[in-house]
Amino acid sequence: MKIKYAVIIILGLILLVSCSPPNNIDQTTQPIPTTVTNNPPPTLENENGCPSKYDGTWKGLFTYEYDVPIKDANGWSTGEYKKITKSLHLTITLKCVSDDDTTTVLSITHAINSHPHFGCQISGCTPDQNFGTINLPSKDTDIGKESLEGQFIPIKFPNGINLGSTDGFDALYVGVDGTVLSNTLNPAYTCRTWGAGGTTEENALFPSKDETAEFLYPACFKSWSMNKVS
């Protein structure tokens, strides 16, 4: 009986040894990663060059100046005028239509204009999509790389009133890799860096009588600038 027990013990030791890993195998292995980084696929350009660097939301300030008649104590006009300087806030969302080495063509999918004259306050509106497209230089402007005629921002609001930057050579500035838009300092466009008006007698002039009961002389459109915010 003692011999049988010894055999059983020896067999048990052999079994334990066979289940243990060989001493010549390195037990240190590389840790299994617990997280997997999924890199987003690269943005593919369509055949028309879209999307463009201009796609997104822009906010800006359009400054204007107009004359108001000065009256005497009896309410009669003195023949003199005082200048009033104000500005409106404009927010627009742009979407690329086409893009090449010269001009980026965009549509305005949404707009908000702080001035009641344009009927597009608070929640905003969708400008007339048939009025025309926005054409911007494909690259930043500089001396020798001025904006071209036909590169400007036209907007027609649902109430029929238009607002737009001046269409002309070297009238539009593009900077900071397409994240800043503004008028240039070209003296040819003094007081007409942008414009606004309508097609009827009531809305042909801006600003209109909603600011004062007196007739307002046409505005001097002093300057405008917009920055890309998203």
Could you give the topology of this structure?
Blueprint: H1 2-19, E1 56-71, E2 77-99, E3 103-113, E4 134-137, E5 154-156, E6 162-165, E7 172-175, E8 180-183, E9 194-197, E10 220-228
Antiparallel strand pairs: 1-2, 1-10, 2-3, 3-4, 5-6, 6-9, 7-8, 8-10
Walk me through what this model shows.
This protein has 230 residues and is mainly beta. The strands form two sheets. It has a seven-stranded antiparallel β-sheet, with no helix packed on it. The chain has a three-stranded antiparallel β-sheet with strand order 5-6-9, with no helix packed on it. The N terminus is likely disordered. The chain has one domain.
Describe the structure in brief.
This protein is mainly beta. Helices cover 8% and strands 36% of the residues.
